[in-house]
Every structure is written in C-alpha cells, then in structure tokens.
Amino acid sequence: MSTDFQRAREALGARLRELRTEAHLTHRELAGRLGWAHSKISKLETGKQTASIADLAAWAETTGFTDVLPELKNSLRRLETQYRSWRRQLAGGHKTVQEAALTEEQQAQTIRVYETSVIPGIFQTPDYARHLFTHSARLRRSPRDVEDAVRARMRRQDALYQRGQKYRVIIWEAALYAAIGGPQVMTAQLDRLAGIIGLSSVALGVLPFSASLDLTPKHGFWIHDERNVIVETLSAEMELKDSEDIALYLRTGVVAAKILGS
Questions:
Q1: Domain 3-84, what fold?
Q2: What is the pTM of this model?
Q3: Residue 239: what are its φ and ψ, rounded to 5°?
Q4: According to the model, what pLDDT value does residue 1 have?
C-alpha cells in the first residue's frame, strides 16, 4: 500500500471523526445507530479501513451532515484513483476492467511496459488470456465473465495496427518459460509474440536470465506517456501520478533498455 494512499485514507478518516464529534456522538453511539460493530467506527476514523460510498452516505445522514456527502465522495474517489482494490474493481467482472484499460491506452501516445512473469495483455492469445482470467476469477472469487473479458482484451490489441501509438515493451525471460495454460497454449503464445516483431508500432525486447542486473525485477508496470504509472499487486492496482514516482519508473525502464542495447 502506498504512503500517499494511506495518508489520503487517514485524512478521510479524520474528516469522518470531525463529523462525529460535531454531532456530539461517541464511537458506541454512532455504531449503535448505524448497526455497525464498534471496531468499524474506529478503523474508518484511523484510516485502517477504506469506507465505501454506502458507508459515507450512512455516516453523513446519521451525523446530520448530508450536505457534506459530495465532499466525502470526492475524497474517496481521489483516494481510489491511487489504490483500487481488485475486490471492488472485479465486483462486476473482468470485462469492465479491460474496457477501462482500453480507455486509458487510447489516451496515450507512448506506452512503456515492463513485465516480469507474464506476457503483456496487448500481446496475448485468446487461450492464454482465457486461462489467466479463469484462474484470476477463481482466486479472487469474482464473477466469471471470462469470454466477455477475453473479447475485451482482444479489442485492446487493435491499437497495435493503428498509426499514432507506440509501444515500448520489455519482458523478462522468465515470462517465456512460465507455462501458462500448458505446452499447447504457450507454443501458440510464443508464436504470436514472434509475429509481433516487425510491427512499426512496437519495440519489443526480452531481458535475458544472463543479463548483469544492478536492479532485480520486482514487479511489472505500465507507463502511459509520462502521465501515470500503473502497478498491479495481488490485491490491488495502484495508479501513481507523482512526478518523482513516474521519473523513478522511467529510469528503471531506461536501465533495462540499456542492458538490452549492450
């Protein structure tokens, strides 16, 4: 979890505590009126738990400050642009996440990608993507809209054949050996990857196991122009917009590119 995210969550919690105290309610009194556990009030106010829209609406109504609900919603929205849990994002399935990624990518001219253990979605075959979506839905217990998600991911690949966008992609060699879906799926996927080479919109490099690394590959990331960085973890997707964070990831990509050029 990012420090910026936690600070924003604590700031929202402080605002909720302010509303409670102005309403002259104790923790237990507010919890009783809301029908919540006393611990939930404490966790929300101290930034140890993220409020939902429904939580904020109930809090504002119960404390008598319904006029501040738009403010609270905006605070939550800003917070979630930094840290978006998969539990919330996948509540409606994987298709909506893929459509959001398509919208993000359509707004960028240069997309820089670094992946350590998986073939990037924009290069995946349907079978490879199908396997990933199936197991992701099982792991996260989200709706299994696998076929819709696969079709949405394939639509993202149209940009590879259009003018105006550039993809600068580096894959760690481990991604070529991770047998996602078994030998047949991987054979087709590697063939697809080979077919990408030569596209004018794509610069693709594979960082070999034998490369001398000053930095070890820790996780993948996507940079859209120099506007934001998207980083995925098992539990959430983080969007980094701070200029220093973006510069750090850009430098990391440059280091990897220099290794390939050496």
A1: 434 Repressor (Amino-terminal Domain) (1.10.260)
A2: 0.75
A3: -110, 115
A4: 47
